[in-house]
Input
Amino acid sequence: MATLNNYLLVSGLLFAIGLAGVVLRRNIIVVFMCLELMLSAANLSLVAFSRCNPIHGLPDSNGQMLVFFVITVAAAEVAVGLAIIVALYRARQTIHTDELTSMKG
Amino acid sequence: MPSYLFWMFSLVMLLGGIAVIAFRNPVASALSVVTCFVGLAALFVGLSAFFVGVIQILVYTGAVMVLFLFIIMLLDLKDEVRRAKPLIPILGGLGLGIAFAAQLISVLAHNTDAALPELDKNTLVQASATLVDSGTITATGKIATALNAGSLPDVHLIGRALFTDYNLPLQILGVLLLVATVGCVALSKKTTPSD
Output
């Protein structure tokens, strides 16, 4: 049987991969996908904690409710974010972050 | 979930995650995210969170990643040209990831480990008795019937919580989705110079 620490380790590693991708990649769509990976990694640790802290012997449904809300908000965030990326591409013809420097101080 | 299945699905998930940042082509990255999320959904099912596992597949891999692919194809992105990459972001990204992973491992090494509590028929029947005694569910309802039969009525329990304790957040979430829809339409409207 896998233990709580195994799940937390895997979730943390997925978060680390997402974090490295956000800093490493220059394509704004790939950066956005890495953000989704980080959100999902947080979901995994929430579900693992909900399974490990049972209420009356059943998995804690409050943790799974939080995951449900995170997934819904993430879906709304993706829709708005991709609309922004399309608008950006229309204005600049690029989604490479090195070439988007008009807000650089 | 048996240990070997856990490690197999974790491996699928982590390799998918690494492939996302390793591939140069955005379409390949998006498909790697799909692989990663399928592994993640399997881990959710292994944690007896069947509802979350199913919506992970339906919402993330089904809707969100298809939207990503649609945008990638719409913008007609080619493979990134090989350009001289500045060394600092690469070192910074790898360094951040490795530092985070090392910190995580050192924290988990000092953390007392806990095995997942049993979810066998005994626990479920006891849980059903406790919930019926406290008046949260009725003795003849679907939740109690499923619990007494020894299966976990995951969707029923979450639905109960969603429409009782979390009803207000649910309504607010509906408003949020409406705002997002209106925002998308406003953002993608073509503005002419005369506006």
Notes: The mean pLDDT of chain A is 89. Chain A touches chain B through 72 residues (CB under 8 Å). The two ends of chain A are 52 Å apart (CA to CA).
